């Protein structure tokens, strides 16, 4: 009798747990997010782990068997408006989540490419995206999928149905705010920045309760602005007028438009900040903190723990937003808790990620001339001859001295993320070789209007190529190999334990390289430019590769003479999934 009761109890419990587990989609937990880099069966974060090393431990696919990597399916984003597709997809429990241009989000069966649901944000007239109508990805947490929209809203959707759970204003799109980055989940909070650095907005990082969307803290990144914690003013960023004169800090820029990374070990969020406003640096003497910087922020209260300014008093639109990637560096027999970033200004920085101390800066593009180098404290040694002149000192007061500066304002590297392999101990940096004519003009702040006070034309440095994928050793500072591409590189990079590096080209190829030598070992033409970040995951015992395809982004809009190298590239909007069939994996 007792046996039977125990049996019944066990059956009852089993039935109960089956009942609870019935929804096909398991919730994405905090542990799933923290362990993302170690669990190749899913991709639940932007960057394949909160540190965004974009390294997968999968090694089924290698340079020998990659010829067997074949398309499994392709999914069209549909619609007439096909613009730049810069998204990184997420995969969980056989469902792939990918965002598209014009603030769209799709849930797709990861095995078949069949659409489960689609969410289209209804965008108002008058949105002000600076650099195409892109979106870079979503975030997963518990039973929701989150993304930001071009009208500066944050949306939480039900993972199973795509129905809106909540929608919150990040800010007023009429003032120039928008949103394009992938949000980040840290300790139950959803962390976002703002886009709009060309419109005199003030950059900030903010955290919301991921369940409700209510603000927990706000941290403006420009000095003089007050932070917020639990609905009350917290602390001021910096000290008013320390590095910004007069009222200039009020429209100081520093847009936090590319999202951040997170180091759970140190409990620090790393966020980059964009150019100071306006571009015309004669109008804001001083270092202009914390524009063009990397900030380490405490995710619990929004306090700045350390800051490192890559380009103090920027005059070239060298946004400091590029991702800061935590990694452990072996140097002189010691392990250094380091972080690296390939800055728009053309230098590859390695910092101590515990305190922001400067370790090294190495040029990763040719002919840098705005600075003669970086001093031992990490501060640029400016070449004042290559800073655009003050229009007030010109004869008619309308146009300052024009200079030719390298890199061009689109940067030695732009938004497209680097990857780091703990196997090869190399960073893979998608860079571009270009310079620009740049001059300053007078400008006044006007809500919702471009706040530049500058004119510019971007030009290639070399005749045969602009794009340059470089493998950089952060310890020796050497470029170990380089792949040259005719058109500018605008896609993210992925590396794997199978000794492979993947990236896309505007010419429409997804390409794979030997991670140690740079030898090109595979390519596939997807029919339109690739400007997105590839992912890899394991499904049914096979290794898959996926990437969004669709030409666009800043280059065709802002690329001056450079845009000519990409004329004739067809637009598109799709996701491609590739797999290595089991039978070919063992060959
Ligand atoms: Ca994972
Ligand atoms: Ca900018």
Helices and strands in order:
Layout (H helix, E strand, L loop, with lengths): L1 H20 L8 H5 L20 E2 L13 E7 L13 E3 L2 E6 L3 E6 L5 E6 L18 E3 L2 E6 L3 E6 L5 E6 L14 E3 L2 E4 L11 E6 L5 E6 L5 E4 L2 E5 L23 E4 L4 E5 L20 E5 L6 E6 L15 E7 L2 E9 L4 E6 L5 E6 L7 E4 L5 E3 L20 E3 L13 E3 L4 E7 L1 E7 L13 E7 L6 E6 L6 E7 L7 E4 L3 E5 L4 E6 L5 E6 L9 E5 L2 E8 L4 H5 L15 E6 L2 H4 L2
Parallel strand pairs: 1-34
Antiparallel strand pairs: 2-40, 3-4, 4-5, 5-6, 7-8, 8-9, 9-10, 11-12, 12-13, 13-14, 14-15, 15-16, 17-18, 18-19, 19-20, 21-22, 22-23, 23-24, 25-26, 27-30, 28-29, 29-32, 30-31, 32-33, 34-35, 35-36, 36-37, 38-39, 39-40
Bound molecules: calcium ion (2 copies).
Structure description:
The protein is mainly β. It has one domain: Quinoprotein alcohol dehydrogenase-like superfamily (Methanol Dehydrogenase, Chain A), CATH 2.140.10. It contains four helices and 40 strands. It has a six-stranded antiparallel beta sheet with strand order 11-12-13-14-15-16, with no helix packed on it. The protein has a five-stranded mixed beta sheet with strand order 1-34-35-36-37, with no helix packed on it. A hairpin with a 5-residue loop joins strand 36 and strand 37. It holds the Pfam family PQQ. Its main location: periplasm. One of its GO terms (molecular function) is alcohol dehydrogenase (cytochrome c) activity. Keywords: Calcium, Disulfide bond, Metal-binding, Oxidoreductase, Periplasm, PQQ, Signal. It is found in: Periplasm.
- Which blocks of ≥5 consecutive residues have pLDDT under 50? 1-23
The structural domain count equals 1
The CATH homologous superfamily name equals Quinoprotein alcohol dehydrogenase-like superfamily
* Average pLDDT reading: 95
The total beta strand count reads 40
């Amino acid at each position: 009798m007792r046996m039977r009761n125990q049996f019944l109890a066990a059956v009852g419990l089993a039935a109960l747990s089956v009942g609870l587990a019935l929804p096909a989609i398991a919730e994405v937990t905090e542990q799933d997010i923290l362990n993302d880099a170690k669990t190749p069966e899913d991709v639940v974060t932007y960057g394949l782990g909160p540190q965004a090393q974009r390294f997968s431990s999968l090694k089924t696919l290698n340079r020998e068997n990659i010829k067997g990597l074949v398309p499994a399916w392709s999914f069209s984003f549909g619609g007439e408006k096909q613009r730049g597709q810069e998204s990184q997809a997420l995969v969980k429990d056989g469902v792939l989540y990918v965002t598209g241009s014009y603030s769209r989000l799709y849930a797709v069966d990861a095995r078949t490419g069949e659409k489960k649901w689609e969410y289209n944000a209804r965008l108002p007239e008058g949105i002000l995206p600076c650099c195409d109508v892109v979106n870079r990805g979503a975030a997963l947490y518990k039973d929701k999928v989150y993304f930001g929209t071009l009208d500066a809203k944050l949306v939480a959707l039900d993972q199973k149905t795509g129905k809106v759970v909540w929608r919150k204003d990040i800010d007023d799109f009429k003032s120039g705010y928008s949103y394009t980055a992938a949000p980040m989940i840290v300790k139950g909070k959803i962390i976002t920045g703002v886009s709009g650095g060309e419109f005199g907005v003030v950059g900030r990082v903010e955290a919301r309760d991921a369940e409700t969307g209510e603000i927990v803290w706000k941290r403006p990144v420009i000095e003089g602005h007050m932070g917020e914690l639990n609905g009350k003013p917290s602390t001021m960023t910096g000290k008013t007028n320390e590095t910004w004169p007069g009222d200039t800090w009020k429209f100081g820029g520093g847009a936090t438009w590319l999202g951040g990374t997170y180091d759970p070990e140190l409990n620090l969020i790393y966020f980059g900040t964009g150019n100071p406003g306006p571009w015309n640096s004669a109008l804001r003497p001083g270092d202009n903190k914390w524009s063009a910087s990397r900030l380490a922020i405490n995710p619990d209260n929004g306090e700045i723990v350390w800051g490192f300014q890559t380009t103090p008093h920027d005059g070239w639109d060298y946004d400091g937003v590029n991702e800061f990637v935590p990694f452990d560096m072996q140097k002189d027999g010691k392990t250094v808790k380091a972080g690296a970033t390939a800055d728009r200004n053309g230098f590859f920085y390695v910092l101590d990620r515990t305190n922001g101390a400067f370790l090294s800066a190495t040029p990763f593009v040719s002919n840098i001339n705005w600075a003669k180098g970086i001093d031992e404290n990490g501060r640029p040694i400016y070449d004042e001859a290559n800073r655009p002149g003050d229009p007030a000192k010109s004869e008619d007061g309308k146009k300052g001295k024009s200079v030719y500066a390298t890199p061009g304002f689109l940067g030695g590297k732009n938004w497209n993320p680097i990857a780091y392999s703990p196997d090869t101990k190399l960073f893979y940096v998608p860079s571009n070789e270009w310079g620009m004519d740049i001059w300053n003009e007078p400008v006044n702040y006007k809500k919702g209007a471009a706040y530049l006070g500058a004119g510019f034309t971007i030009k290639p440095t070399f005749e045969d190529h602009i794009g340059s994928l470089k493998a950089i050793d952060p310890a020796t500072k050497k470029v170990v190999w380089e792949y040259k591409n005719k058109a500018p590189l605008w896609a993210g990079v992925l590396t794997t334990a199978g000794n492979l590096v993947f990236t896309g080209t505007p010419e429409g190829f997804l390409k794979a390289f030997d991670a140690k030598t740079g030898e090109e070992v595979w390519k596939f033409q997807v029919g339109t430019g690739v400007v997105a970040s590839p992912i890899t995951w394991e499904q049914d015992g096979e290794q898959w590769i996926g990437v969004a395809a669709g030409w666009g982004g800043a280059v065709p809009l802002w690329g001056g003479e450079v845009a000519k190298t990409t004329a004739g590239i067809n637009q598109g909007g799709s996701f491609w999934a590739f797999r290595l069939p089991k039978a070919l994996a063992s060959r």
